[in-house]
Design brief:
The chain has 353 residues and is α/β, with parallel strands linked by helices. The chain has helices spanning 41-48, 97-100, 141-147, 150-161, 178-189, 201-209, 223-230, 245-253, 276-281, 294-305, 322-330; strands at 2-8, 14-19, 29-38, 64-72, 84-87, 90-91, 111-112, 124-128, 132-134, 169-172, 193-198, 214-217, 236-241, 255-263, 285-288, 313-318, 337-341, 350-351. It binds zinc ion (ZN). The site of zinc ion has 9 residues, from α2.
């Protein structure tokens, strides 16, 4: 099979487009023909070597996989060749206390697909059969690859780790990104008024196009004051945050009494000095969110099938141009999602959406 391997960490890292032996399924595995694989910040962290877990190279990155079952292991009875599927990339053991209660993202033996095990920037990938989710007929592979990870992360944050009540104010940080673009659409569908942020005019227009009611310039230091103004000084009920550092502290300045910040990232800084007095006096909540379970993925794909959420895909790259896809995501000029299609003709680049 053709595949793209990361062979050296860096920004940019060093990649190799190469031929590798086709993977074979173990007894409980399936091998998928990868039809589309989305790119995420996680891939950049792998590329840079900045993840707080040991990684061995070479590694095929790619965790947001949509494809067709090409081969099944001896013990797999529920899947057949040709089935269209998405993949839970938080690989889980299915045995531990947390898996037993359906919270596979907390698995004690969890592994990240495309990070600790070869992923989807290849023509074929081997995954455990228990990690598959059936793709609704109406959802295309590229749409699935744009929503499975980022969209389900947002779904997990907004419907599992926190709740949105109709009429709530929701602040979705970074509305042009994968998580932000989904968070806007989910919060709107649940009846909230949505404020978002973006660093350029183009990004703010894009976020407004997804349904955000207000889009603020995140490069202006007074944006949290603008949030308070928009909400009549009250602040928002829920913040969906994935930057960390200073941005997380700014989010507290936007938060109403009894409000919740749910966070799933720390690109902007992994340590913060939190002011505890207003935090407990206002009975605010800071909630961590990590990954998703298969229910969140099934939900986001079902929403896509019903037309309640749209995959915001920016560009689709062929496999041999995967390193360029990494580069554009790193430059932060992307509106929505970048997707790689391993079966696409080499060399061509498609626009979508
Ligand atoms: Zn487990």
């Amino acid at each position: 099979m053709k595949a793209v391997e990361l062979i050296k960490h860096g920004a940019p890292g060093q990649f190799r487009f190469c031929d590798l032996p086709d993977p074979l399924p173990g007894p409980g595995d399936v091998v998928l023909r990868v039809r589309a694989c989305g790119l995420n910040r996680l891939d950049l962290w792998l590329e840079e070597g900045s993840l707080p877990i040991p990684i061995s190279l070479p590694r095929i990155p790619g965790s947001e996989i949509a494809g067709e079952v090409a081969a099944v292991g001896a013990d797999v009875s529920e899947w057949r060749t040709g089935d269209r599927v998405a993949v839970q990339s938080n690989l889980f053991c299915g045995q531990c206390e947390f898996c037993a209660r359906g919270e596979e993202y907390l698995c004690l033996n969890g592994r990240l697909l495309g990070v600790q095990q070869d992923g989807g920037f290849a023509e074929l990938v081997r995954v455990p059969a228990r990690s598959l989710i059936r793709l609704p007929e109406k959802v295309g592979f590229a749409a699935s690859a744009a929503l499975t990870l980022a969209g389900s992360t947002a779904m997990h944050m907004l419907t599992h780790r926190a709740q949105v009540r109709p009429g709530d104010w929701v602040l979705a940080i970074g509305g042009a990104g994968g998580v932000g673009s989904s968070a806007i659409q989910i919060a709107k569908a649940l009846g909230a008024s949505v404020i978002t942020t973006g660093s350029t005019d183009e990004k703010r227009r894009f976020a407004l196009g997804l349904g955000a009611d207000h889009a603020l310039d995140s490069t202006r230091p007074e944006w949290p004051a603008e949030v308070r103004k928009l909400t009549g000084k009250r602040g928002v009920d829920l913040v969906v945050e994935h930057v960390g550092g200073e941005v997380l502290l700014q989010c507290f300045a936007c938060l109403a009494r009894g409000g919740t910040i749910v966070t799933c990232g720390a690109t902007g800084g992994r340590e913060v000095a939190l002011k505890l007095w207003p935090f407990f006096v206002k009975e605010q909540k800071l909630v961590g969110s990590y990954g998703r379970n298969r229910k969140d993925i099934a939900a986001i794909l079902e929403w896509a099938a019903q037309g309640r959420i749209k995959a915001a895909t920016w560009r689709i790259f062929p496999l041999n141009r995967t390193p360029e896809a990494f580069a554009v995501l790193r430059q932060r000029q992307v509106l929505g999602k970048v997707v790689v299609e391993p079966q696409a003709a080499q060399g061509t680049l498609r626009k979508e959406g």
